Amino acid sequence: MVFDFQQAIVLEESDEAQLSCIAATPTELVGARYRASDFLKRVMAGRVCATFCNTGSSRCAGEAPSVIAANQPALYFPIHVRSRRGVLMMLRPHGAPGYDRNSRRAGAKSFRCSPALRSPP
Questions:
Q1: 102 phi-psi bin (left φ>0, alpha ψ -120 to 50, beta other)
Q2: Which of 26, 49, 62, 67 lies most in the core, judged by the most C-beta atoms within 10 Å?
Q3: Is there a domain that residue 112 lies in?
C-alpha cells in the first residue's frame, strides 16, 4: 500500500524524556526535539496510529516554532534507527482528508511485513 503525505519526520529516541528529529521533509525540522509523550511511547512500543491531527507530538520547551501545524492529519509508524526505538510520522496538509482506520490497518499490515520497520532480533 502507498500512503500519500506532504511532510515526513523520523524521530529517534534520545532518552526516556525526548526524541530527536534525525531526518525530515522539510529539512529545517532536523535537530528538533520532541517530548516523549505517552502517545509516542505507545507508537515506539509497536502501535501504528492514524490521527486527524498531530497533537500527539509536542516539541520540547525552548524549541523554535514548528513548520508542522498541529491540525495536520498524521500516520505514525514504530521504527528502529541505529538500534534505538523511533517513530516515522507521515503528515498530510491541513484540510486534507485524515488517515482513517483503513489507513491504520494497512499501515499495521505493512509494519508486520517489513523487516526494515521492525525491531532487530
A1: alpha
A2: 49
A3: no
